[in-house]
Design a protein that fits this description.
Distance between the termini: 41 Å
Shape: globular
Number of helices: 12
Largest sheet: 7 strands, mixed
Oligomer: single chain
CATH superfamily of the largest domain: Dehydroquinate synthase-like - alpha domain
CATH class of the largest domain: Mainly Alpha
CATH architecture of the largest domain: Up-down Bundle
Number of strands: 9
Radius of gyration: 20 Å
CATH topology of the largest domain: Dehydroquinate synthase-like, alpha domain
Strand content: 5-15%
């Protein structure tokens, strides 16, 4: 049995097993009468997706779906989605799935009414103010994994297909109006996805907790998010039908994405270009990069992890936490290094250049430069 709750922070969230049955009600709450459900190709024909479409259809809201979504969605997917949205005269988006479906769904709702290219809204300074906020369509988010937390995020990650660079596109109004967080939708995730997405949530929390920026609310959320992953990811991995563990991991994912309002850091600055070039799983890549980043950041974060480790149930302070991270990765059969992940070491110079351009750099507690990024990538290959 899982908890059933309604939350209003950071947006309206309908949490608990079985809440997917409220999808049509959520559309009405958001003012959507003709929704387009956006998901990825892998989910398009699955039972959980068909059920969501049935719920919409039975309520007279149709069963329109767009699923031309790559694992790392790009501007080509976005253009196709915008065309489908406009051709169907839809008035809102249901972003359904893992990070890919959620991110692209949010972008379709954002860009359908804009006149500038998507790259003009990259998360740089106040570029988001270039958008016509009144033209952004309402969004409902329905996560089917527990990792990215995009369902409570104000940004999406879109890959530029020409340059192979991942770009963070930000606007406050792409925060979904309603989230349906139903852990029953996650029970069929295979172990490799359970682990990868769960460790993505863990990386979000670790980096938010490590960030030097001042945001005490996100700091506290990130701390408890780490604990939820530590306590419940092994249970979800061992028994995918454990609804309580699945629910706790959905909570952790949303906490990670809420927490990283405080900032991300070198883990994501490394994993974004790696994923863009080599199409690796984002959460798994984060996990491989984390040990080296913790070592680099040690002078700046040791004290806070010394204080946090008893709460996390880890002995030995910061050093104990670092040792735990590698054991935790090993528990889920995460590759030990980037070579085992399929990354080509000859691309290190290019990866460094791309990492330095990533907005996540600004949240790292140790300022990043070519020299320490060189060390990070080399260490992540050799560890």
């Amino acid at each position: 049995m899982t908890q059933i709750a309604n939350w209003s922070y950071p947006t309206m969230i309908r949490f608990g097993a079985g809440r997917i049955k409220e999808l049509a009600d959520a559309c009405i709450e958001a003012g959507i009468q003709n929704p387009l459900l956006v998901t990825d190709r892998g989910l398009a024909d699955l039972k959980i997706t068909r059920r969501a479409l049935d719920i919409l259809d039975e309520a007279g809201l149709g069963r329109a779906m767009f699923s031309d979504v790559d694992p790392n969605p790009n501007e080509i997917n976005l253009a196709a989605g915008i065309k489908a949205f406009k051709d169907g005269h839809y008035d809102g988006v249901i972003a359904f799935g893992g990070g890919s479906g959620l991110d692209l769904g949010k972008m379709i709702a954002f860009m359908a009414g804009q006149t500038r290219p998507v790259w003009d809204f990259e998360d740089i300074g106040d570029w988001w103010m270039r958008a016509d906020a009144s033209a952004i369509k309402p969004i409902i988010a329905v996560p089917t994994t527990a990792g990215t937390g995009s369902e409570v995020g104000r940004a999406s990650v879109i890959t530029n297909s020409a340059t192979k660079v991942k770009k963070i596109i930000f606007h406050p109004k792409i925060l979904p109006m309603v989230v349906i967080a139903d852990p029953e939708l996650t029970v069929t995730m295979p172990n490799v996805i359970t682990a990868g997405t769960g460790l993505d949530a863990f990386a979000h929390c670790v980096e938010a907790f490590s960030s030097p920026h001042y945001h005490p609310m996100s700091h506290g959320i990130a701390l408890h998010g780490m604990k939820l992953v530590i306590d419940h990811l092994p249970r979800a991995y061992a028994d995918g039908s454990d609804l309580d563990a699945r629910a706790q991991m959905m909570s952790a994912a949303m906490m990670g994405a809420t927490g990283f309002q405080k900032g991300l850091g070198a883990i994501h600055a490394m994993s974004h270009p790696i994923g863009a070039i080599f199409h690796t799983h984002h959460g798994t890549t984060n996990a491989v990069c984390m040990p080296a980043v913790l070592t680099l950041n040690a002078p700046a974060i040791r004290d806070r992890f010394d204080e946090a480790s008893p709460y996390l149930g880890i002995a030995g302070g910061f050093d104990g936490f670092c040792a735990f991270v590698q054991r935790f990765n090993d528990q889920f059969s995460i590759p030990r290094n980037l070579a085992d992940l399929g990354v080509d070491a000859s691309q290190i110079d290019n990866l460094i250049t791309m990492a330095l351009d990533d907005p996540s750099c600004g949240g790292n507690p140790v300022p990043l430069n070519r020299q320490n990024l060189q060390w990070l990538f080399e260490t992540a290959f050799d560890q």
